[in-house]
Request: fold
Amino acid sequence: MLRLSVAACLWGALYGVYRLYYGLGGTGFIPGELSSAATFRYINLFAAAVMLVLAVLPIVMHQARNSARWKLLVLIVCWLVAVACCSHALIDIVQRILSLTGHLQIQYPSSIWHTVNYKEADLQDLFGNEPWFLIEGLLFAAIGWRNVPKGAHRKWMYILLGAVGVSTIIGILVAVGAIGRTVIS
Reply:
């Protein structure tokens, strides 16, 4: 259990450092020309801060897992992170494959991007960002699995897989324009 928590912590910190690189002005592997480097840096600094703070979450949860008061919260957090990360990865993997095959063009905000090399962006996301999200989601699913009371494993996993499946299907349908996107403000 401790190994899973440490692995999830280190994996989260790795992505936080990657985003921090761009947040501090790094330009390697940027798949295009920025129209607003300041906005790009700000977005990445914010993402790095969030990721680095959340990277300690698996260790905190490891410490709290034996407390009856916190056990349910640990399971809920693991479930939410697993569903969010796995769905995010699967949706974006499908989007990037569709983009690479010419079946979808991903829109980038002109307020940040002046030009984009779509193939480079797709490949960077497909082989860099999305595997990170998938592995992080699977690590949290494993942590949650280890914390589920005996006998409830199947039910918990069916619910998790169902939630990932439903959210992934909805996300892909939105991405390809088959259903509309609703923004709540």
